[in-house]
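W.,

You were right to be curious about this one. When I first looked at the sequence I had no strong expectations either way, so I just let the prediction run and decided to look at it fresh. Below is the sequence, 513 residues in total, followed by the output.
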Amino acid sequence: MIVLRTPKGWTGPKEINGHKAEGSWRSHQVPFSDVRTNPTHLKLLEDWMHGYRPDELFDADGRLVPELRELAPSGGRRMSANPHTNGGLLRRDLKLPDFRDYAVQVPDDQKGKVLCENTRPLGEFLRDVMRNNMTNFRLFGPDETASNRLQAVYEVSKKVWMADLLPEDADGGELSRDGRVMEMLSEHTLIGWLEGYLLSGRHGFFHTYEAFAHVIDSMFNQHAKWLDISKNHVPWRASVASQNILLSSTVWRQDHNGFSHQDPGFIDLVTNKSPSVCRVYLPPDANTLLAVADRCLRSTDCINVIVADKQKHLQFSTIDEAVVHCAKGIGIWGRASNDEGVEPDVVMACCGDVATQEALAATALLREHLPDLKVRFVNVVDLYKLQPASEHPHGSTDREFDALFTTDKPVIFNFHGYPWLIHKLAYRFKNHENLHVRGYKERGNINTPLELAILNQTDRFTLVIDVIDWVPGLAARAAHLKERMKNEIILNLAYAHEHGTDREEITNWVWPL
């Protein structure tokens, strides 16, 4: 390696208008912008350019002279063909275990009744991904590997640690000189490591708390731009493994961290970037998370963002159902619906784990108290299914969207993130004017799960009220049910304030359908 230290603006004008230029901060600006109108500055620019002696470098036609052209490397020595700078040439597919082997067992009569930490099976899957790929796969994340329930990877490889080892590190420190878990409380350093790892032909997986993904906003932006240009405009650049980002410890389960940990806005940022390289998935349970993770690890030239909470959640899908649901990205859950063969009166839609549970609870209340009401339940895993196919390769056609959401019925949509993101994606579809979205609205602090949902109006009781308000003719007929839902909101808030926990019938709620 040769390190050459030079003055800023070296070889440029020494001085401009009496101000020091070469070796000064001024040389990093525009030295002079008036060369069209200022003959003195035009002469200064001409002398500067002649200082590079172009007559010795180029022939009369403006081409490099032969002796300089011969200096250019050929074959594998060219930058475009060198695997050190075109790492996709070295990329090998991961040796992936069958993700189905890590599935949560959800018998038909136990759907919506089995509890599991959604990311724990993922950690076991990643453990064996690492075991099978000990030279080209690493896990990257802040000091939250165990917190995000991914600690099974330590059975195969520890955290890399190059500093001093202390006696107390042996007590659960999980440190090793040759560890393949890259852990540091510096998200921007970690994503930089991961990006370099991917560009050198390897594979990786990054995880962080959802609220702090914004630390890497600008780095995500630049990698997305680089991928877009490389994928679509530079045909000689070989495909690299996708950048996989898991957001856990999500907004809706912050009953001890509070307001500082409540921000689902990273996915808004992702939707601003090129649709050819960006993907966003919000699996509702552990088995759909496994299916999504397998897809992401197999993909290339993309940034895959997965939003999945680490806490215990009800499980709704068998692994086979999860595979089908993830392949579609969006679909009707027949067990929660009662509109088969007829037009629905209302569509209850949802995206995200907690949003799905509250929407299911609302649907159960509606079917219990308004059995004649025809409800269609739609769950979204692939967020881009809510965008037109003309805008995103994963998008829906008008016919697909209309078939699921109808063209004229009210749609009550419970969303994990900021509600206006759904409107941004879906505004071109015919039934957008009947789309009523609930989501996070910057309300809450250290709250119980239901209390936080109520404050942001994503709870089951508010969703029932929304249905009553928006289904034509239902307001008068269901007035008593609406009053009961209002009472439930008041009573549950009061209980949470007094006891610091939700009522037992909320905490232990299971899907009754």
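Here's what jumped out at me. The chain has a mean pLDDT of 95. And, maybe more interesting for your project: The domain at 87-313 is CATH 3.40.50.970 (Rossmann fold).

Coffee later to discuss?

I.
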